[in-house]
Amino acid sequence: MALNYIWIAFFLIAFLFALVKLVFLGDTEAFKMLVDGMFDSSKSSVMDIALPLVGNMALWLGIMNIGERAGAINFLSRIVGPFLNRLFPEVPKNHPATGQMMMNFSANLLGLDNAATPLGLKAMGSLQELNPNKETASNAQIMFLVLHTSGLQLLPVTIIAQRFILHAADPADVFIPIIIATYVATVVGMIAVAIKQKINLFDRVIIAWLGSMTAFIALLVWGFTVYLSKEQISTVSKVASNLILFSIPVIFILGAIRKKVNVFEAFIDGAKSGFETSVKIIPYLVAMLVAISVFRNCGALGYINDGLRFVVNSLHLDSRFVDAMPVAYMKPLSGSGSKAMMINTMQTFGPDSFAGRLGCIFNGSADTTFYIVALYFGSVGIKKSRYAIPAGLIADLAGIIAAILVAYLFFG
What are the φ and ψ backbone dihedral angles of 384, each rounded to 5 degrees? Predict the structure, then answer.
């Protein structure tokens, strides 16, 4: 129901804003912008997202099938099982969904969006098989989706690359702030869902895993800052992410050879479902992206930012962070929109400005909640998202607050 109300609100708000512009400001192009945006976004939903996704889906679902037949997914499930079994008590031990979720999380950690999406859709499909009410999101699906939307990543390769393109003096200087902000968003999102689902977060296994992950991230940050230059951080991030990504199919293939699996046949069998899944999500993508488009084009975000600036100035606080807030507003709605806002912020204020850096941290602090809800739940036919969106937005808010705090801490 939450998604239903939000979708309706986007259209009504856009209509009211455009009507005010037309009647009181004489803007005769107001409604044309909305209509043009509707047609453009509906086209891009299919041509730029769904159809290109067919190839990625076919590739990674094929690779995942090789991994499953080679036993790699079950092996991964046994390793992370003790931790994920406590966060996902509805998922049986050593179920393939556990390994699939871990593969999705790993791709996100490396900042590999193209690989993360097919892996995540595969995991959501496995969780749907366990879901007794096929039209309503299960607890396990909500926990998975919120952890995914929190966008935990250790190697923000694309953001660093974009800063390099715009001639930032130090493209990798946002590396550590992004890690901190996205980790905070993930932990807060997990806690919010765990409280709702009455999961015991003080379980010694959960504490041990969270402690280990926190220590690993702290050690990674320390090692990068002490032993690597800023240029080396960027290079290592790019090389490591792509090396690990390509190693996954190679390891799966070697494991399949060891088990005497027909590798090519296994790939084809897995890849066949890529087209079907991609077509199934088209209506959900069109519905959400068109609504986001009209909301963005009506100018509401600009008025929200002006109101925030007025409040901050009235409280005599530093308002520099407000210049980057459009990135934060857009991030839960649209990944491409958020990236465009980030680039615009860097172009307007400079990549080395406070706003330019904060915009990058915002973009890396979380993922696109509304888009992911529509994409992942739509792929398995879920119509009732329950509290998935509020929990995802709580994680997004935590990431935004953390991003602002670390930006002032690192860049003053």
Answer: -115, 110
Cβ 138 vs Cβ 385: under 8 Å: no
Q: How confident is the model at residue 401 (pLDDT cuts 50, 70, 90)?
A: very high
- The rounded Cα 119 to chain-centroid distance in angstroms is 13
Give the contacts of 118 (CB within 8 A, at least 6 positions apart).
53, 56, 57, 59, 60, 61, 64, 274
- Read out DSSP for 79-116? HHHHHHHHH-TTSPTT-HHHHHHHHHHHHHHTT-HHHH
Q: Which DSSP symbol is given to 323?
A: G
Helices (H) and strands (E) in the chain, counts: 21, 0
Nearest 10 degrees: Cα torsion 253, 255, 256, 257: 90
- Most distant CA pair in the chain, distance: 73
| CB proximity list for 161: less than 8 A, separation 6 or greater | 171, 234, 238
135, with CB counted inside 10 A (0-12, 13-18, 19+), is: exposed
Q: Which residue type is seen at 181?
A: A
In angstroms, the CA 412 to CA 60 distance is 42
87-109: pLDDT as tens digits: 999 999 878 888 888 888 877 77
| DSSP run (H or E) holding 333 | none
- Pairwise CA distance, residues 196 & 278, whole Å: 32
The vertex-119 CA angle with 115 and 123, nearest 5°, equals 165
Residue 222: both structure tokens together: 């320390």
From residue 236, give the alpha-carbon distance in Å to each of 151, 174, 186, 264, 303. 21, 15, 24, 32, 41
pLDDT of residue 297: 87
Tokens of 127: 């969780």
pLDDT in tens, 206-220: 999 889 988 987 887
**How many Cα atoms are found within 13 Å in the side-chain-facing hemisphere of 81?**
13
Residues 6+ positions from 397 with CB-CB distance below 8 Å: none
b/e per residue, 382-398, with b = 16+ CB within 10 A?
Answer: beebbbbbebbbbbbbb
Q: Which residues contact 323 (CB under 8 A, 6 or more apart)?
A: 345, 348, 349, 354, 355, 358
